[in-house]
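Example record

Each entry pairs one chain with its bound ligand, uridine-5'-diphosphate.
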Amino acid sequence: MTELTVLVPAYNEADGLGDFHARLAAVLDTMPGTAQVLYVDDGSSDGTWAAISALGAADARVTGLRLSRNFGKEAAMTAGLDNVDADAVVVIDADLQDPPEVIPELVERWRAGYDVVYATRRVREGESGLKRLTSKAFYRVMEKLSDTPVPRDTGDFRLLSRRAVEALRQLRERQRFMKGLFTWVGYRQTAVVYDRHSRHAGKTHWNYWRLWNLAMEGITSFSTAPLRLATWVGVSAACLAFLYGLWVIVKVLAFGDPVRGYPTLMVVILFLGGAQLLALGVIGEYVGRNYAESKARPIYFIEDRLASRGDNRTGHARE
Ligand code: UDP
Ligand code: MG
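Structure tokens for the complex follow.
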């Protein structure tokens, strides 16, 4: 069992992995306590696994995990978290966009009693204005829609205490939006600010399609607001339809029926349309609840316990 494990998801990172590990190892060398590095090869098609094996041969701290195919970063992180046994885990990108030099600072906060220490970036070098704009818009929408706010300008670079990792392990949902899940588990969370650099080697695996999918996943797995929207649209359309139907009836009674059949037709269409939208909204509400249940997330995590009076320790003990 080690004190600290650094978890590195890597997908086609063969070019940069040597440099990355050199910088990470230099940081770990300066830190007290035992440390391990766990590389998760997310089904790379280049020499990433060979590079990891070579690092393992040269450095006893290196361990590796290789996934059977490319599952995506969220799954790679989950695989890593399921396979660590450490008091603290740091998740970091392999492309040196997250500087390993920040790790001692994260560990320091953890020693001060925090469970989740996320690194928030101050600048975003090497990213287009459009990417910056879209990511800002995403965080804003998330904040409005969801009751699990995702901290802004925060990637997956963070430290998790043992109990935070154990909590995360219990979240077995298949649609994994890790940034949301990290926040969702709760416990004591804090931020450390750092400067984000542009990619060191290789190229980003993200494109707008992948980012869009991630954003959709973030919104739909942490909020049923879109379903609720359907209910509201349904209810207001139904109300308007009923009112308009009434108006048509009143008009016929007052002024007769110049176009034969029109009033009945109109009333029937409006009534059925409104009723259908309403029913759809109601179904949506139930689908939303069903959806939340099917994720089978645990209902709570216990943070602290008060020791029984028979216990001779004073106060309460942290687990
Ligand atoms: N990554 C992964 N699986 C994937 C895509 C990416 O494990 O399918 C890893 C990648 O090797 C890197 C990290 O996730 O360590 C971040 O990826 P990238 O730098 O491409 O994303 P960006 O920094 O542009 O958001
Ligand atoms: Mg990157």
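The first strand starts at residue 2 and ends at 10.
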